[in-house]
Amino acid sequence: RGRECAVEKQAGVFRIVVIGASFTFGHGVDGKDTYAAQLQDMEHGLEVLNAGIVGTGHDQQLLWFEKEGLRYKPDLVIWGFSSADLPRNVDYFRRVADLHTGLNYAKPRFILDDGKLALKNVPTSKPEEVDVAIDKYLAGERAKRGAFVMFLRHSRLFAAVSDAIAELRGRREQLDLAAAIAREFANQARGAGTEMVIVHLPVEKWLLSGGPITTAKKKATENILKQVEMETKVPVVDLWPIFQARKPDEIKKLFIKDGHYSPGGHRLVAEGIRDYLRQKGVVKATNAPPVAPAKQ
Question: What is the rounded CA–CA span in Å between residue 108 and residue 110?
Fold first, then answer.
């Protein structure tokens, strides 16, 4: 997202590719307000490419990195890891209809075969085929359960409850896949001679909810990231403490109504990443001129 970027980088520029989903893309804010753009503005000689893609799972983010991201030969890859993306790791299609066609989209996904990633659902089905499959499934459910139950199934409350139950049941698989995907991210980056950092991005719902289920889910995610850090030696930058240091009213201002970051939230993420890069000396001093700002 942002300005057009040549594959070949400028001499003396430290190039960072930031990968993630909507929190990285900057859903709901201008391109100049994303944490990738603000990070670039904070450091002389940095070129930060925003490769966030809305609605993707960790699997799709890895596949993009392998196919496209490595072409840009970044000096550093930052993976914006969001727990909001975890359920997508077990999806074969996204239940988000295209605004123009009204169709859903199939997606590739990994399974674990003897602990190793195996890619399935490739090539993906056409959107028309996905909707036919969904219609057949719903028709079968209607026949089994009756019209009244299916009416409930499509009510917001029922959908929210059923989605929550499904998420809890599949959480272990989601986390195991995320760990395996993170290890493959690290292998790909290492093989290309590129440094990598995983940034654990806070989400509003977990920041403001102290319930036992939320606490358990957050702890499980943290444990997986610690395990990945130990196994791969890829640093994990946990930005949760700098968000949690704010009062609840201040935290709310860091997010927009739909739960994504506000410009202020993006700035806090950018500052956290900048401070880490300075502390570790990852960003090398250069004599390069400032990189041109992103075009909107």
Answer: 7
Alpha helices by DSSP H, listed for the chain, are 22-25, 35-42, 58-67, 127-145, 147-153, 156-191, 204-208, 212-232, 240-244, 248-253, 263-280
Are the C-beta atoms of residues 69 and 17 closer than 8 Å to each other?
A: yes
Q: What interhelical angle do 35-42 and 263-280 show, nearest 10?
A: 50
List, in order, residues 6 or more apart from 130 with CB less than 8 Å away: 93, 103, 104, 105, 106
Q: Which two tokens stand for residue 275?
A: 């401070």
Whole-model pTM: value is 0.83
The answer to whether the Cα torsion of 53, 56, 62, 68 is positive or negative is: negative
Question: Which token pair is 76?
Answer: 């550093």
86, 170 contact by CB (below 8 A): no
pLDDT in tens, 265-296: 999 999 999 999 999 887 654 444 444 544 43
Taking CA atoms, 164 is separated from 65, 112, 137, 152, 244, in Å, by 30, 23, 20, 15, 25
The CB density around residue 231, as the number of other CB atoms within 10 Å, is: 12
Q: Which residues of the chain have pLDDT under 70?
A: 94-104, 127, 130-131, 133-138, 140-169, 283-296
pLDDT tens, residue by residue, 13-56 = 999 999 999 999 999 999 999 999 999 999 888 999 999 999 99
CA distance 164 to 158: 10
Q: What's the token pair of residue 62?
A: 């890895």
- What does the alpha-carbon distance between residue 173 and residue 176 come to, in Å, rounded to a whole number? 5
Q: Do the Cβ atoms of 177 and 58 come closer than 8 Å?
A: yes
Closest CA to 231 of 290, 184, 162: 184
**Would you tell me how many other CB atoms lie within 10 Å of the CB of residue 282?**
16
What is the residue type of 243? F
